[in-house]
Amino acid sequence: MPRVLMDPLKDSSSTGSFPAEKMNLTNCSSNYGDIENKLLPALYTITFIIGFVGNAWGLKLLLQKWQKLGNINVFVLNLGLANVLYLFTIPFLMVYYFSGRKWIFGDIFCKMTRFCFNVNLYCSIGFLTCISVYRYLAIVHPLRMMGRLTVTHSVLISVLVWLLVSVQSMPDIFFPKSVNGTEKCFHSTSREKTEDYLTYSLVWTTTGFCIPLLVTLGCYGHVTFVLCRRNTIEKTLRQKCVKFLFILILLFSVCYIPYHVFRNLSLFSRIQSKQNICVWWDKHVFTGHQISRGLVCLNSALNPLVYLQMTEMFQKGFCQVRINDRRGGRWGKCSLYLRIHGSLCP
């Protein structure tokens, strides 16, 4: 078995894949740092520009339509705040990768930067899940939920999301982010703690991503089914709503699934390298991981705009839905979206 010489100071997003076949020493011992140094700065720069403009515009639209958007605006606002929190850390990461992975801001700030990234990521997933549940309740169970989903409930749920994500992300701070005082700021942890971090990452992926993903897909899948069956909404608008739901599910899946898959594969590969085992597709997984890190950041930057536009579209569509009140039909023609927040369509 050939011995693989891995760089112990290589960033935590290092290689990863399953050991289906072993490679020779020449191909396996390659250092992929150049890919990271060239790819991530460009992705972070694009993310910062689009994220800054997108979130500023999104917050402006949110303030303009605050009364019209209902309780979901609380989640959209928190979604924007989570994104802004991360945007403030991007310039420091840009400096880090532009300088060839030399961190000059200290170990504590390194951990805080990585912590902000994780909080942004999983708070975004959490608030997107909350929005999907609210949409599901508003469309599928409007009468049952009428008056039960208040602004107070939305605020309490938002606080709970922040707390749960912070507790979930806290263990990451206690993993070392550098080696022997070097100027590094690892995305996960040092090579010596990779096994422990992989275990933590798998639990994190399950609770922070897989469960919310299943909830989101289930809610939007049922919403799509209900919209397709309702004849009270104009066909053109119904098709737009269904198409928009499909785009949201696609964005959620494409941007978040690759990141979690490649992250865990990367950690698994580092464990294999410690056992002098290498795989032939190692470089492809590493490159995919870097791209997925950029995609997950870019998706978070665009989320507020996407959801604000979707809310406006759904509001127009729901105002066309008729709900027959069995106790006398006093509500008449009414918006499902506004009904659930205690008001009527004009």
UniProtKB/TrEMBL annotation:
GO MF annotations in UniProt: neuropeptide receptor activity
Primary location: membrane
PROSITE patterns documented for this protein: G_PROTEIN_RECEP_F1_2
An example Gene Ontology CC term for this record: membrane
Subcellular location: Membrane
Taxonomic superkingdom: Eukaryota
CDD domains: 7tmA_P2Y1-like (cd15967)
Ranges where the G-protein coupled receptors family 1 profile domain occurs: 54-307
Gene3D superfamilies associated with the record: Rhodopsin 7-helix transmembrane proteins
UniProt keyword terms in alphabetical order: Membrane, Transmembrane, Transmembrane helix
Membrane-spanning residues: 42-63, 75-99, 119-137, 149-167, 197-220, 241-262
PANTHER family: G-PROTEIN COUPLED RECEPTORS FAMILY 1 PROFILE DOMAIN-CONTAINING PROTEIN (PTHR24244:SF0), NEUROPEPTIDE S RECEPTOR (PTHR24244)
Name assigned to this protein: Si:dkey-78k11.9
Organism per entry: Oryzias latipes (Japanese rice fish)
